[in-house]
Amino acid sequence: MSIYGYNYTADATALYGSGTTVEPNFAPLSEKVADAPERASRPEWTWVGAGAEPDLADAKADDFYVTWPRRVNASALRASDIKVTLRSTEGDTYTLKTGRDFELDTSSGETQIAVTLRNWAFEPVYSSLAVTVDPAHLKGDKPQTGLTSSYDITSVYAYEAQQGGGGTTVDGTVTAYSFYGLANLTSPGQVMSPVTYTLSTTANGKTQYYAEDSQGAGRLVGSVADAKVFDGSGAADRNLRLIGNTVYVTTRLGRTTSATVDGTPLTFAKTYGGGRLLAPAAADGELTTIPGYAIDRSFANWVSHEKWAWQSSVAVGWTGIDIQPYTGKFEWSVARGATQQFTADDASVTWKIVGKVAPGTSLSRTGLLTVAANETATTFAVVATSTSDTSREGKGTVNVTVTAPAAS
Fold first, then answer.
1. How many Å apart are CA 383 and CA 350, to the nearest integer?
2. What phi and psi, each to the nearest 5 degrees, are found at residue 397?
3. What DSSP state is assigned to residue 166?
4. Quick one: which H or E segment has residue 399?
5. What's the CA gap between 128 and 87, in Å, rounded?
6. DSSP one-letter code for 164
7. pLDDT tens-digit profile of 60-107?
8. CA distance linking residue 42 with residue 211, whole number of Å
9. Quick check: 309 and 320 in contact, CB under 8 A?
10. pLDDT of 158-173, one tens digit each?
11. In terms of C-beta density within 10 A (0-12 exposed, 13-18 middle, 19 or more buried), how is residue 82 classed?
């Protein structure tokens, strides 16, 4: 995953701390469960972890124990004898790596396989896990073929992706929130606060609000707390809709309507409220997920994992050529009529400007940017492309903002 032009390293540090290491907790099974199986005539598998099924998206190890038959000695078992395979419903597979994704502790009668993988990526969504033990290094009355135990698992937390809207305050702007992993999302109200509006007008120099008495007759009140609250989800208002897995809501500004007070029609301004996504903890408690997903109700929002790739221990969100200087999300300001020397950590790069600029604005083969004195563009991109690394990681970008020259 590479997103050129954005650097969320500071955000990731604040969200996820210094790393994502999951530490194994090696201990006899009898110390973790009250009813550990006794050694008998057949191998017995036991999973130990948090929740209803193994969760590879959390920060806790999942332990898979094998209690061996009395005539089997597993003390010589090796990590290379263990194969842990993840599989998605679409057929994607991933085989865990020894020492990085899982660790082994074994004795004569019991083997603990501690899966320490923390899965951050949103795709693929692995929904099952199989642990296989090759019996080659077992001693005694060992089985002739490999032993396998399979489990349904969680590998991704249900999440949301926003399109459009955001901080844009323009009447008619549509914001879409697409949810992934929810099995029974049938109404916007399951994940969004009710959309409402109140009516206000100015009378005698004071803001007054529309209310109704017990008979439904209109009247004016001085406090919004006493105002009548209307449903604002209709098509003429914020047009709240659920289509497929996506909730749509429209920004409405400057809307007015007429209402009668004491027999006189008055014009009122509409003030909208609600229409905000609910935190997972506040969302419909009956929401369920499709295989491979889970809802973490402790999250403050549905996008808690979105900046996972910028963690220092993962370090794939910023893969590519590092261009200097920059601030924030790979941004830099250059005044009209000024120059700026850019450098890259790959000596083989070629330089170019992306965006429409004035004829006098140029970028040399060594990364020297010259901004024309008559430049009318407000932004453009400086891009460095490696000639030695032709993959998508062989690029870097800084977004340049053109500013007015300093006053003399």
1. 8
2. -140, 140
3. T
4. strand 395-403
5. 5
6. S
7. 999 999 999 999 999 999 999 999 999 999 999 999 999 989 999 999
8. 75
9. no
10. 999 998 776 657 889 9
11. buried
CB atoms within 10 A of CB 102: 23
56 near 153, Cβ under 8 Å?
Answer: yes
d(CA 211, CA 260) in angstroms, rounded, equals 11
Token pair of 326 as six digits: 């920059």
pLDDT for 180:
96
Least confident of 91-95, 301-305, 366-370: 301-305
CB atoms within 10 A of CB 357: 19
Determine the average pLDDT of the residues in 389-407. Answer: 79
Mean of pLDDT values over 3-29: 74
Give the Cα separation of 325 and 343 in Å (integer): 7
- For position 388, what pLDDT does the model report? 86
pLDDT digits (tens, 9 = 90+) for 243-297: 999 999 999 999 999 999 999 999 999 999 999 999 999 999 999 999 999 999 9
Cα first-last separation, the chain: 45
3-class secondary structure, 136: helix
How far apart CA 111 and CA 131 sit, in angstroms, is 12
Express each pLDDT in 183-219 by its tens digit.
Answer: 999 999 999 999 999 999 998 899 999 999 999 999 9
3-state SS, one letter per residue, for 61-123:
CEEEEEECCCCEECCCCCHHHEEEEEEECCCCEEECCECCCEEEEECCCEEEEEECCCCCCCC
Residue 392 has pLDDT above 60, yes or no: no
8 Å CB contact between 124 and 20:
no
- Of residues 253, 271, 258, the one with CA closest to residue 207: 271
Question: Does 11 have pLDDT greater than 80?
Answer: no
User: Cα separation of 386 and 393, whole Å?
Assistant: 9
CB 99 within 8 A of CB 117: no
**CA–CA separation, 10 vs 300, rounded Å?**
19
For all residues of the chain together, what is the average pLDDT?
Answer: 90
Side chain identity at 85, as an amino acid letter?
T
Parallel, antiparallel, or unpaired: how do β-strands 218-221 and 206-212 relate? antiparallel
Output the DSSP codes for 290-329.
Answer: -TEEE--TT-SSTTTTTTGGGSTTT--TT-SPPEES-BTT
Distance CA 278, CA 272 (A): 17
- pTM tops 0.85, yes or no: no
Would you state the structure tokens that stand for residue 188, as one six-digit string? Answer: 């916007």
Identity at 247, one-letter amino acid code: V
